[in-house]
Amino acid sequence: MRNAGLGDRLISPNDTGYNSEVNSWWAKNSRQRADCFVLPHTSEEVAIALTVLTDKSVCSGNSSIAVRSGGHSSTGSSSTANGVTIDLSRLNATSYNSETNIASIGPGGKWQDVYKDLIKYGVTATGGRDGDVGVRGFLLGGGNSYYSGRQGA
Questions:
Q1: Nearest CA-CA partner of 77 in 137, 126, 120, 123
Q2: DSSP code of 8?
Q3: What CA–CA distances, in Å, run from 130 to 63, 93, 127, 142?
Q4: Which of 55, 105, 141, 146 is deepest in the core (most CB within 10 A)?
């Protein structure tokens, strides 16, 4: 995969940072030692990784692909022991447009950082109650916010 343009975005078991990546899940029982981790910094790099990983001439098809945002989920939901984990944590930018009143939040963000970024504008978003929860997992998998009773999310 390094030859596919991912270079230092790919972390294998013998690379510096591999154990830190494994240990970054919130609960010890949800940590799995993937064959490798991909840490994309752009949506284009996510597309490259998925293109390479789904090419049967590159991968045998017996490997799984897990996608992690915050990693605050049950074992196997955002990690894998037999395949590749794509960690979206570098896609964590938050911006706010006061004219449209729309916040743009990267899928790799954690709610604690989103709230910290948005408070500068005097606004917030309906998101996770635990700041360590990832944006993608909360939005796609469901979760409870401080506004669930009032806003339904």
A1: 137
A2: G
A3: 32, 19, 9, 13
A4: 105
Which amino acid does the sequence have at 110? K
First to last CA, the chain: 38
Lowest mean pLDDT among 49-63, 84-98, 103-117: 49-63
Describe the strand order of the beta sheet including 83-87 as a list of residue ranges: 10-11, 36-38, 83-87, 64-68
Cβ-based neighbours of 51, under 8 Å, separated by 6 or more: 4
Nearest in space to 66 (alpha carbons), one of 58, 74, 56: 74
Q: Which amino acid is at 4?
A: A
The Cβ of residue 73 has, within 10 Å, a number of other Cβ atoms equal to 22
CA–chain centroid gap for 153, Å, is: 20
d(CA 133, CA 143): 9
Separation CA 129–CA 147 (nearest Å): 9
pTM of the model: 0.81
